[in-house]
Design a protein that fits this description.
By secondary structure, this protein is mainly alpha-helical. It has a single domain (about 1-305), classed as ABC transporter involved in vitamin B12 uptake, BtuC (Orthogonal Bundle). The chain has 13 helices and two strands; from the N terminus they run H-H-H-H-H-H-H-H-H-H-H-H-E-E-H. It has a two-stranded antiparallel ribbon. A hairpin with a 3-residue loop joins strand 1 and strand 2 (about 285). The longest helix is centred in the first third of the chain and has 32 residues, at about 1-35.
């Protein structure tokens, strides 16, 4: 039973670690399904994480922090939209510029406001999103296996975790069961045909990027006010790029995106538990090598098991309306 409890605890950690990657991957899914490459997921998450922690630290409200995170992320998404859609600029360069902007601006503004080397003050319990205990979780916790799964794995997460997992079926429904989703997928495959039918390519791509901005705002707010209790320099630590890798691995489909992000969550949780462990024959592995394990395995999986992944045909191509 101790072994089972350890597995449950690791899976619980995996869920928490997978959430920001899942939200960012879904944001990228909307963007790239509309034909816009979104390398700037990392920057939008980072900007949102700083905004959420800074506003929550000043006001004491995680909800105001969340609104600030969504506002900052959406503003950055609009910068990317103007550069990519209206000005027909290189979408990759625009996204990389957003990443550099967020990396530098968060540290500069954080140091200017709080004088803590770019970090924000530690948040009180009231200024963070607290865990939610689902009905009867404590009472059912004594039941072997089922009760333990319900109490420790399903219950006890904060609101953004549940929103992230709910966003997966909602995204699947929107993309494959609604008129908006049909048009969004069409604009990523053949924008000219959609334009000929009288549907605005520009408006659809803007809508996709706004949705992506909201999701990245949730991801950033989770990092600094849900999973963590403050903002620190470069706290996203490459999660935006891992989200892009998950998106490619899942072939731009929402449910496979969920499983891919959970896989990375499991790898991340495993590397935490493997630190300091003595291995047969080789002894204790350096911490740096253990910390690199999720990224190394992600590259291996992408290189060896992804198969042929076909992106939307019009992704990365600015649309020029014929006159």
């Amino acid at each position: 039973m101790n072994f089972f409890s350890d597995i449950i605890l690791m899976l619980d950690s995996s869920v928490r670690l997978a959430v920001p990657i899942l939200l960012a991957a879904l944001a990228g899914l909307y963007s790239e399904r509309s034909g816009i490459v979104d390398i700037g997921l990392e920057g939008k998450m980072l900007g949102a994480a700083f905004a959420a922690a800074a506003v929550a630290a000043v006001t004491g409200s995680p909800w105001l922090g969340l609104l600030a995170a969504i506002a900052v992320s959406s503003f950055m998404a609009m910068i990317h939209a103007i550069a990519s859609i209206n000005m027909r600029g290189n979408q990759i360069i625009s996204g990389v510029a957003l990443n550099f902007l967020a990396l530098g601006a968060t540290v500069f503004v954080g140091h200017s406001w709080f004088k803590r080397g770019g970090s924000t003050p530690n948040l009180s319990t009231e200024a963070r999103f607290s865990p939610i205990e689902l009905p009867f979780a404590e009472q059912l916790g004594g039941i072997p296996i089922v009760g333990e799964i319900y109490e420790q794995l399903i219950s006890g997460h904060n609101l953004i975790v549940y929103v992230a997992f709910l966003a997966v079926p909602v995204t699947a429904w929107v993309l494959f069961r609604t008129r908006f989703g049909l048009r969004l997928r069409a604009v990523g495959e053949n924008p000219k045909a959609l334009d000929t039918a009288g549907i605005s390519v520009t408006r659809l791509r803007y809508q996709a990027l706004i949705i992506g901005g909201i999701l990245c705002g949730l991801a950033g707010a989770y990092l600094s006010t849900g999973q963590g209790a403050s903002f620190s320099d470069n706290m996203t630590a490459g999660r935006g790029f891992i989200a892009l890798a998950a998106l490619i691995f899942a072939k731009w489909k929402p449910v496979p995106v969920l499983w891919t992000c959970l896989l990375f969550g499991v790898l991340s949780a495993a590397q935490i538990r493997l630190q300091g462990v003595e291995f047969p024959l080789i002894g204790e592995v350096p911490v740096q090598a253990i910390q690199a394990l999720p990224y190394i395995l992600t590259v291996i999986l992408l290189a060896g098991f992804i198969g042929r992944s076909v992106a939307p045909k019009a992704v990365g191509q600015p649309y020029i309306k014929e006159r």
